[in-house]
Design goal:
Elements: E1 4-8, H1 15-26, E2 30-32, H2 33-42, H3 46-55, H4 63-77, E3 81-84, H5 90-102, E4 109-114, H6 117-125, E5 127-129, E6 136-138, H7 139-142, H8 165-189, E7 194-198, H9 203-215
Parallel strand pairs: 1-3, 1-4, 2-3, 4-7
Antiparallel strand pairs: 5-6
Helix pairs in contact: 1-9, 2-3, 4-5
Amino acid sequence: MKQRIVLLGPPASGKGTQAELLVSSFGIPHVSTGALLRVECANGTSVGKEADRWTSQGLLVPDELAIRLITIWIAEHGTKFLFDGFPRTVAQAESLDTALAALRAPLDLVIVLELGEEEICRRIASRLSCLHCGATFSCMLNSLKVGDMCLRCGEKLLRRTDDQPAAVEKRLESYRELTFPVIGYYERTAPELIHRVDASMESDAVFSEICELIRS
Ligand SMILES: [Zn+2]
């Protein structure tokens, strides 16, 4: 079974949803740099304040900050992981390879969720999030609005600052310019590890494809 996994994909391609399903089925620890950073922001730490200056504008946090967070995580939790939202740049991918090589624990699977930009924008425009439990809901599917209760934990739902329209365009730009090349990086350095999955399918169908990749 694969247990050192990177999950790549544009905003709203369902990375968080798939990661949750994978955690409950396989017990692989899920690490999202976005979620790690949101916890830091909510706690008002200096890392959080530093990160918020970037993410609230839809910009990626600097490589050095993302790498610092992940390195700390690996030191504390070990080398079984599902990374979601990391690496976001080729420099981060290179740093991750170096760190894992030193631990003799190289990546064993890179999953790319593919989704067109029209569908990305449609999904984000209707997305509400719970910062307490991390759940996201479509306001169209669930007839919800900002301030309603999270269907899972009862906390208030809101629109993430990085889901505001101005930030979304910047996130897509960042994805095209910085993260898309990460896919090329893995195609060059580890073509046997990389697998693409059509993220426009229902999340259950996406999940069963990913399960096969993890078990194979
Ligand atoms: Zn919740």
